[in-house]
User: Fold this.
Amino acid sequence: HLAGGDLARLARAGVAPMPTEEGLALFDAALTTEQPVLVPMRLDTAGLRRGAEADIPPVFADLVSARRPHHDQGAVPSRSGEPSGPSWLERVGVLRDEARHEAVMDFVRDAVATVLGHSSPVSIDAQLPLQEIGFDSLTAVELRNRLNRVTGFQLPTTLAFDHPSVEAIANHLLNRLAPNDEDRQLAALDALDQLVRSIADGAADKDGARMRRLVEQRLREATARLAGAGLAEDTPLDAADGTAPGLVHATDDELFEFLDGEIGS
Assistant:
């Protein structure tokens, strides 16, 4: 008496529907055994084998001979069961912003359609709440597992409730794919710090001295731009760590004194 979507979910797990009379008969038979834990069910081993390249529950793993999916997430399996071609992350990672957004939206919409048992993702409205299009706790977990398997992420079981639409989930995945502005800026600062250290280590030779002067010039220009944006104005830095004082209102003499001290050191 299950709905079509529920039957489709069971079929993907390799479980066949069972008439009520058969279920009750198996229950009675189970009571006559000495086994402590029994699960009366009808298994579709062909369905399990088809799911071998998807998501076989561990309890069924010994019932089929197909290999479990490789950890190279999203790669297309070959006949041998090993993945071939680039992973989903690699394919999406090379796309530009608009194409990447469209690809991730299509990916999430297709996964939602599969979980709900739709033959096509066309009918899935990306803005509608998932609960309005038939999601429950079971389909939410299945969707999370499917997305985890392909992307390689460790998404929470509450994903479909924290981000309750196709569009919201797609945006969440896009944020996981691309670091935010602060992360990029911190990474750039780390790279700058490594550059300065490498130049300082080789500053004794001619090329090193030239590069040091170039870096100092670029840093002064960057400081001036920050000052013009109101980010460095009247904000002297700690001279104890060798950094420069604020330069926004410095006089010519103060600027030359600072430069002489930096070059001299």
Observations:
- Residues 16 and 42 are 5 Å apart (CA to CA).
- Residues 66-83, 232-245 have pLDDT under 50 and may be disordered.
- The longest helix spans residues 206-228.
- The two ends are 84 Å apart (CA to CA).
